[in-house]
Amino acid sequence: MASRKFFVGGNWKCNGTGEDVKKIVTVLNEAEVPSEDVVEVVVSPPFVFLQQVKGLLRPDFSVAAQNCWVRKGGAFTGEISAEMLVNLQVPWVILGHSERRALLEKLSDWTNVVLAYEPVWAIGTGKVATPAQAQEVHDGLRKWLQSNVSPAVAESTRIIYGGSVNGGNCKVLAAQPDVDGFLVGGASLKPEFVDIIKSAT
Ligand code: PEP
Predict the structure, then answer these.
(1) Which of 184, 189, 199 to probe ligand 1 with, by most ligand atoms within 8 A of CB?
(2) Across-strand partners of 116?
């Protein structure tokens, strides 16, 4: 798995109530998982619960927004700007999820980017890519980074897999050399998310 730290993101999508959020956070806070030197865990609640989750969540896990507006703030009803997320100390954001197809500006700095490969046929369907399929695509993406960005970025960028990852299939996927973690939807709302975090080791 090279020197890249394993990354597990939980995308809660448009689910839950304040009570559900408390329950999920309690499960996460009580879970025994590998240390933050080994795995980086980020959960992404709906916007309305971001501050609540940030306040309750254990300090070794962090939060992500599920989207943000691509430009500066202004007269854009319903949008939330990157500046607002920074102001609220929300360190991560999911951009360009296939359920939104958001616009992605050309990147000039890859330092804090985690790239997710998510076959659309696998998202929320229960059909997961085989380890060989995931590895083939991740390897291709890394080669693309090598040729189009730089060998250093290709070596350091974490490429994570998403699409029906669960507690049962995470281990074999995590064993692939270019699978550096997961973006998890449905299973991130369940206790098995802890097993997915543990697949880092
Ligand atoms: C996702 O929403 O990014 C996702 C991968 O969902 P699921 O794990 O439910 O397929």
Answers:
(1) 184
(2) 160
**Residue 18 counted as domain residue:** yes
Structure token digits, residue 8: 């597990």
Distance 121 CA to ligand 1 centre (A): 10
User: Cβ-count burial of 26 within 10 angstroms (0-12 exposed, 13-18 middle, 19+ buried)?
Assistant: exposed
* 138 annotated active-site: no
User: Residue 32: inside a domain, yes or no?
Assistant: yes
* Residue 1 maps to a domain: no
- Structural domain including 105 reads 6-198
Whether residue 192 has its Cβ less than 6 Å from ligand 1:
no
- Kindly report, residue by residue over 84-102, the tens digit of the pLDDT: 999 999 999 999 899 987 6
Q: How many domains does the chain have?
A: 1
Average pLDDT over residues 159-187: 98
Instruction: Give whole-number Cα distances, 42 to 7, 15, 183, in Å.
Output: 8, 17, 9
pLDDT score for 8: 98
Other CB atoms within a 10 A radius of the CB of residue 4 amount to 16
pLDDT on residue 32:
98
Amino acid at 53: V
Q: Give the burial class of 22: count Cβ atoms within 10 A of its Cβ; 0-12 exposed, 13-18 middle, 19 or more buried.
A: middle
Whether the Cβ atoms of residue 118 and residue 163 lie closer than 8 Å to each other? yes
